[in-house]
Amino acid sequence: MNQRSTLASVVLYALAAIVVVISVYPFLYAVSTSFKTGSALFDANLWPRAPSWRNYLGLFDAAQPFGRHLLNSVLVSTLVVALSLFLAVTAAYALGRIPFRGKGALLLAILAVSMFPQVAVLSGMFELIRALGLYNRSVGLVLPYMIFTLPFTVWILTTFMRQLPKELEEAAIMDGCGVWRIIWDVFMPLLWPALVSTGLLAFIGAWNEFLFALTFVVDDYERTVPVGISLITGATAYEVPWGSIMAASVIVTVPLLALVLMFQKKIVSGLTAGAVKG
After folding, report:
1. ∠266-253-122 over CA atoms, to 5°?
2. Where are the alpha helices (DSSP H) in 134-241?
3. Which pLDDT score is estimated for 171?
């Protein structure tokens, strides 16, 4: 019995090590390449012999508006998270706490929206963006991004909202609290794990989105980071600046890793909400 448990532990740790290597090595390679220049880019060593910050500094010169792309991505992603969570919390309260006919069908319809591929709604969304006067503006990306972030946030928060004790709501009603007071003062402090997990995933989705950002924004100074990285060019049309591309990828990835590490406990508890019925 002990031999079996020991063998199972060894296999488990071996598989975990393989997954870690497969997941972490591409990022380590990107970090290594971002410090290489010239012929060192073709060096087989993982870490460069003479590390250089030239690729990072070159991203913020006048020829590459990478700093503006970062600001655009931060603005768009933050607005998407704020609006998505606000709408999702109110929708989750209605779907999770208020009984009405057709609630299950409505929740499935909301979730079904996220199953459509981006290409399927691209043309219709393009016409809507133009009609609203949001074409070629980074802020205009908030609307199409919310189409794919709202269903997920509503679904997770509704599941979490259903688990909250009814006694809390009943006590608040007896004290004369209205719907908004119940949501913000009673339920919000208990929803933080779900809010952090859904908000972070919504931020990552908006931060990494490429197709809508490429289609709805043409002005280089209004572009977001993913499109900006794809348009980084070298001194000639045939030169691919791998060092600069890797440096930009590292700058974009590090904040996401930091956020995930900071809120990893709340992310796990938020995503596992509803796994066990109370």
Report:
1. 90
2. 142-163, 166-174, 179-181, 192-208, 211-216, 225-230
3. 84
- Which DSSP state fits 184? I
pLDDT above 70 for 46: yes
Cβ neighbours of residue 121 closer than 8 Å, sequence gap 6 or more: 144, 147
Alpha carbon distance 46, 19 (integer Å) = 19
Measuring CA to CA, which residue among 34, 69, 68 is closest to residue 54? Answer: 34
3-class secondary-structure state, position 203? helix
Q: For residue 40, how many other CB atoms are within 10 A of its CB?
A: 17
Which residue reads 């990835």 in tokens? 253
DSSP character for 13? H
Give the C-alpha distances (Å, rounded to integers) separating 72 from 85, 96, 222, 239.
Answer: 20, 35, 7, 27
CB-CB contact of 33 with 243 (8 Å): yes
Q: Average pLDDT, whole number, for the chain? A: 84
**Residue 138: exposure state from Cβ atoms within 10 A (0-12, 13-18, ≥19):** buried
Q: What angle do CA 47, 53, 200 make, to 5 degrees?
A: 85
DSSP for 74-85, written as a single string: HHHHHHHHHHHH
Residue 36: CB atoms within 10 Å: 24
206: amino acid identity, one letter: A
- Nearest to residue 56, comparing CAs of 73, 39, 37? 37
What is the helix (H) or strand (E) element at residue 112, kind and residue range?
Answer: helix 103-113
CB 221 within 8 A of CB 65: yes
Q: How far is Cα 149 from Cα 84, in angstroms, rounded to an integer?
A: 7
User: With 0-12 CB in 10 A as exposed, 13-18 as middle and 19+ as buried, what is 9?
Assistant: exposed
pLDDT tens by residue, 119-172: 888 888 999 999 999 999 999 999 999 988 888 888 888 888 888 888 887 788
